[in-house]
Structures are given as structure tokens and as C-alpha cells.
TrEMBL record:
This is Valine--tRNA ligase. The lineage of its organism: Bacteria, Deltaproteobacteria, Bradymonadales, Bradymonadaceae, Bradymonas. Its EC number is 6.1.1.9. Keywords: Aminoacyl-tRNA synthetase, ATP-binding, Coiled coil, Cytoplasm, Ligase, Nucleotide-binding, Protein biosynthesis. It catalyses: tRNA(Val) + L-valine + ATP = L-valyl-tRNA(Val) + AMP + diphosphate. The keyword Ribonucleoprotein does not apply. It comes from Bradymonas sediminis. Catalyzes the attachment of valine to tRNA(Val). As ValRS can inadvertently accommodate and process structurally similar amino acids such as threonine, to avoid such errors, it has a 'posttransfer' editing activity that hydrolyzes mischarged Thr-tRNA(Val) in a tRNA-dependent manner. One of its GO terms (biological process) is valyl-tRNA aminoacylation. GO terms for molecular function: aminoacyl-tRNA deacylase activity; ATP binding; valine-tRNA ligase activity. Monomer.
Amino acid sequence: MKIDQSYNPVEVEAEWYDYWVDKGYFHADETSDKEPFTIVIPPPNVTGRLHMGHALFVTLQDMMIRQKRMQGFETLWLPGTDHAGIATQVMVERQLAEEGTNRHEIGREEFMKRAWAWKEEHGGQIIDQLKRMGASCDWERERFTLDDGLNRSVNEAFVKLYNDGLIYRGLRMVDWDPVGQTVLSDLEVDREEESGHMWYFKYPLSDGSGHITIGTTRPETMLGDTAVAVHPDDERYQGLIGKTLDLPIVGRKIPIIADSVLPDPEKGTGAVKITPAHDPNDWECGERHELEVIQVIGFDATMNENAPEDFVGLDRYDARKLVVKKLKELGLFDRVEDTQFAPGRSERTGVVVEPLPMLQWFVNAEPMAKKATDAVESGRTEIIPAVWKKTYDHFMYNIRPWCISRQLWWGHQIPAWYCDDCEEVIVSLDPPTACPKCASENLTRDPDVLDTWFSSALWPFSTMGWPEETATLKKFYPTQVMETGFDILFFWVARMMMMGLWLMDDVPFEKVFLHAMVRDKEGNKMSKTKGNVVDPLHMIYGADAKELDAKIHAELLNQYPDGVGPQGADALRFTLAIYAAAGRDIKLDIKRIEGYRAFLNKLWNAARFALMNLEGYEAPAYQTYLDAWTDADAMPFDADALSVADRWILSRCEQTVGAVTKALDEFQFNEAAQLLYKFVWNELCDWYIELSKDVLHDGQDAAPAAQKAARDTLTYVLDATLRLMHPITPFITEDIWQALPHADDAPDSVMIAPWPVSRADSDFAKENAQSAAQMDQVIELITAIRAVRGETNVKPGRVIETVYFVTADADAAAAITAGESYIQRLAKAENIVIQSPADAGAVEGAATAVRGAVEIRIPLLGLIDVTEELARLDKELARVQGDIKYVTGKLGNARFVDNAPEAIVAKERAKHAQYLEEQAALMASRKDLEALAGGE
């Protein structure tokens, strides 16, 4: 079988996914006796489109699943999507607005029909995109958080936690989205610093003896002030504690209280206005001092009836202006200053959220957090990288009540009913027919839905059928790994830990691996507003300039004005894998993706070379590949016929198997990718294929046994390489693997081929290691000769008549003898002479190089025009010295160094160092040539 002449990733990747699905390779068997290995996918929003964060988790999780599948585990990668309460509701409401209506006009039932229709129309997009990345999920088990089964799980969890006394209804301060008309979780609120103002006002003492000056960024909230707090140790105010102030505009008397938590004598005036209804810190202060709560801003962000009459109905920002105006008129305005502050903004609507006290449903998470903390402390669950354990502990030891109710319609409606007659609260799995307290049938269901994170917290076991004791749950829970972003360690991971331990009495996963954030190449967060978004699908399939949004993809268009070419999912996956160093953010450079596509092209060409030289080759039984290192009678090659180069690449392959396996076992995904890159590019392609060409390609005069040994070696190594690379680059490895000659007992797919096993302790491995040491020395000598040729500008086609190797080391001499033919061909040397230092005489016009215990003498007379080469070097020196002068001047300019971006300055410094190295190398070459000219 052959592969195409050129590597086209889009064509290669289009062929194999359906093949894997049709073969049932992704399906997990709950009746299997194999050891389970389970990952549940972090469910992307059903409204979503694939972004780089998704691409990263698909890459890393698929690497784990594919490797474990090849290692013989019963693997389950359970996929699904999240209903994305706010995001989906916003989409549907936007659709309704375009039709001139809204959810309240059409009613809840009709709205839910519209939402489900929207989900059915758009919800499959993200799943299709995950498949394009190669995700080998068990799609037969795909789940959606609003599926009937998961809805049952959510209700079961709510009722149990309520009956356990952990869920309750209470008044708490929440972040309210006045546009989305719902409570938001902390994760749904963006808090980035903005420019604003700090206004200072005077609050007169009721006894007329003076005033206290307070500062605020929200003047409109002063209409709801119920106290002013000062620190008890602040000497400026100690005599005023207990007195009252006249609240300007309103005229209400408010107390001056001593509070050691909120006021800071070193900040502002040291006095803080307390508005319990509109600030979470003030709310807590109000609870400490039993202050009155007066809400003056309503749920639509306008001033309500608790504000003075001329403020009622005003938007909060218009009210702000009116407060400032009135205080100026009253002579109580002190000053205004520019400041930086971080108002919370709704992630979805962009509006500034309003902190408001509301009657909501909460989870008392403290008892659950204790179990979850103990589980990590005892090692039942390990957090990787370990540095995140401190963050986890901080969250858990400082946990607060979790507000779980949302004022939405799209989501899991809370299973609670209220008796209209006696106000009894009934929490039940099934709708009650009558009030258990007064027997009234006038019952109203709570209209709110649960926080999306509530259902997500049940994901590891609700997706497997809980509360039913299903075969899937018994086989695959707890899961082995949870791989996700560090940014949701608390919002999702910690809550899954709490729910799993409370409801299942077991941890939901044995290990947590937290990946970092994918940023642009300068380290900035990707965002539409910054114009630095990199779409994974554009990287996979390419995108011309017309397909790219001038605003969202501005940076990409700046780099690629005509658009970007297709790189393929494999190249993107390899890039993300090699970037994925634990705990380090990924600075994604598209040039790197192009570079790894070139790497895969190199692998493709190596495979083409192999296949061209394997015509008529009969592969040994595949089982011999698996027993190769331990069974001398079941080898896929004749050990006696192996060349030193064959043994070298076999040794390198064996070492790579061990190192890659270890790296993957330790979640060092980047290390595994780097090892494979080095092995494939540097050792297999750059060296072994070149070393073996004289046997395989160039000379049919080679001994048949040597030719067969080289073919056996190349086939074995390529097969092992494809198996090692398959978890990272599944498509290209399948395509090449299918083309390789295999015996009848070979698996039908590389995906189900056994993972290579390291046999470093076998006798065969030790024999190969000895030959490999010789070959390493030969390669080092060839590299040195090539370097001299390059530095002295010997034309590539010129053959050196004789190269002299001077050494007193017997092992080095033996290595040169073993590799003589390789040195002659790859260093273009007609003759090789090995001499001891005692026998070595002077060699006229020779350049020298020293590698270890070997001195290499290379006669250059007649190979180069020394005068012409000196002139070329002088020209190069002048260029480099000009570059040094220019960059030195730049770096000596204080304005440039102080004002230019740090990355630009660092780039110039790197250039300066590089130019100095070039200058030193050129000067050394010139010195050698001058000596050579003297010899002439």
C-alpha cells in the first residue's frame, strides 16, 4: 500500500474518524474484565463554538485515553454538553426580541419549547467540532445536562441535600444582572479594573458640632445608607462613636459605629458609609451590627420607592448625577478624584451588576468541604501540579454558603413548592398534590432554576445513571483523571469533590490535572475586543481573508493578510501538547503550528521513503514486534545481520519508548511531545534514514542479509514510532500505519495496537546500547566534519580526499572503524585514516576539530579558494559589525529601553547576543583561513 506523494492533512484527517466510529473502537464495555480508565469530559456549553481552551483539553484528554486504550485498559471517555443556563436564555430572548416579543409575553411553556428548538438546531455544532479534533469519546453515552436522566439526578441531589439540612432558603447578598434579570455566580462576573471617580461628601453631625467626610465610587447608594463605620482605634473618631449623623438629602439619622473589619484608618478618610442593601461588605457589617437594610435600587437598576420622591424611577447613573448636584447645592460636596476600581460586569450582557439582598436557595457547603479537603489531604485525590493544592485548600477552608438559585427559565427548575394558604415549603422529587401541613391544594412551584454549576457538580456520576446503581456506574466510578483548566478549580472541581463524597461516599476522580490558559504569542488573554482570537478550525482547515473577521482576528490578519493555510488537527494537537508544560500558560504562536505541520510532513516523507524501499517485503508476525526484546527466538530481525546503525536506532527507539511512557504517566505531555519530536526529526529522519540509504536505496550490491536487516529495522521502528505518536497525532499515524506492510496477525488499526513497552533490561537492549555508543561517536565526528566544511565554505559536492583521525583511545578507534562507510558517505570523505598521536605527522593546509578523545584533521588545499573565502568572510564581518553597531545604539538609548514593551527590548538584546556570537565565529574562521593561507 502507498501513501500520497505530498502530505495533505485535510484529506488525511477526513478519512479515518468515521472508520474508528464504525469499528466501535470508542465504545466502552461495562461488562469487560479489563481495568477501567475513565475521564468525563468537561461539558462545553451547548451554545458554544470550539475555542483554543476546548482544543487543549481535547488534545490532552484524548492523549490519555488513546494511550490507556492501547495499554489494554477498558477506557471510557464520556462526552456531553452543558445547557448553559444564562447563555442559552440570552440567545433565545434575543431571537424573541427580533420578533417583537419576549418570554413574559409568550409564557414559560412556550419559551421552553423555543429554547429546546434552539438547542436542537444549534447544539450539535460544538460536538461536531470536538470530533474534528479527533476526540475518541464514547458517543453512544453522550449526555446533556437537561436530559431526563440527568434531570432526575439533579432533583435527587437537591432533595437529599435539603433533607440532610444542607440546602436552605435565606436572605443573602447576590450579584444581580439587571439586563439578564438573574442572579450571577462569581464565575459569571468579570472584575477588571476601570477608570472611575471617588466622590467625597460631608455628613453633618446631628448635634451640629461638625461633620464626617466619607468617600464613595457610587454616590447613588448613599440614599440607602444606615450607618457610618470608623475603626475603634482611629483616634480621630473615637469621641464620635455612638453619635448620629443627618443623612444628606434623605434627612434620616444614622449612627456612627465602631467596626474593626471594614474601615481602614490608612485609606481615604478612615470613615466608611454603610449601605447593607447594595454592597456585600456593607451587608456583612450590617449583620454584625444589626443595621437596617434599605434597598433603594430595584431589579431593573432604577431607583425604587425607598428613595426620595424626585429620585424614584431614575436610572441608577442618572440618580448618581442628581445626588452629586444636590450635595453641591447643599454645600456638602467636598471633592472628586480619579481612581481605578473593578465594578463587576455580567459576562454575558456586559452590564455592571447590582449587589442586592434577595431570598435565595443556598447550600451550606462547610460540612461537604471538610470531606473534600480530607480526601485531598489523605491522598485519595491528587492535584497536579501540586502548587494548586494551596489554592484548593484556601477555597475550602474559607468556603461560604453557595447561592444555587437563578431567576431564569432555561435550566433545572427547583423541586420546591409553596403553599399559598399556610406558606409551607415542600421539597419533593414528585409534584405534591396537597400541602402536608394544611391539606391545601393551592400550591405554587418555585419559578427559579438551579445554578448551572449545581448540575455540573454531579457530572461524574449523574452521567453514569445515578441514583440508579447502573453497570456503568459500578464499572467506571470513580473516574481516574479530571483534566480541566485551573480557573475552575473551585467553581467546578471542588464542587464535584463535595458532591461526589457526600452523595456517592467516594471521590469522583483519583487525580486532577489542571492545565493553564491558552494566550496569544505575547501572553495576552485572547478576546474578541483585543482582536487576537485564534480559531482552532481556522488552524485546521485554513481560512482566507474573507473568512476572517477584521475585528476579532485583527492580529491574525496582520500576520497573514491573505489568510492562513490549513495546518490540520494533528499539527494543532502536537503544538498544544508540546506547549502544555504543567502550570505554565501557553503563548500560542501560529508559526509554531506551521512548524509542527512541517514536522509531520517530515514523518510523512520518511514513511514514503520506507514504503518505496519495502516493495515485496514480507513483514514478520506482528507478535514478534511485541516480543522483540525478550524472546531471542521470536525476533522480527536477524540480530547477527544488524548494522551498527540498525542497532543504534533500535536502541534510541527503546529509550524513547521508556521516556515517552514515563512522561505521559507523569502528566508531562510537553516532555512526551518533545521526546518524539527529537527522535523522529533528529534521529530517525536526519540520521537513520540517511545512514541506511546505501543499503536500502542506493546500492543493490549490499548483502541480502544486511538489506533485510535494514528493512526489518526500519519497519519495526516506524511501527513503534507510529504507536507512540498516535495519542498525540491520531490521523496521520493511522494513515501511515495502514500503509505499512503488516502480517495477518496485526491489529486492524494502530488505535488498538498494543502500546510499546520498554525492555531496557533485556540482553538485546544492552547489546544495542553498546553499538549505539559507537554510533553516537560516529555521528559526532560526521557533524564536526560537516561543520568545518560549512565554516570554510567547501562546496557541497566536493569530496575530501582523506580525513585523518588522531586518537589514543581504542574505543574511539573502534567506533571510527565500525562507522567508516557512514563517515565516507555522509561527510564526503574518500579515505579514512586512523592514527595514534605518536604516528600522526603534520598535514599541510589542514583544518582541525576536536571531539572528545579524537582530533580530526581535514586537508582543505585545493578544495577552497582561500583569497576568495577571506573576502567573503570580510564582507560577512562588515555586515554583522554593522548590525552590532545598530542594536548597540538602540539598547544604549534610555528612552527606547524605558518606554518600549519589555518583549521588544528582550528581542533586541537577544539579537545583540546572536550578532556577537556570529562575529566570534566569523573571526575564528578567518583566523583559521589565514593560517591555511600561510601554509600555502
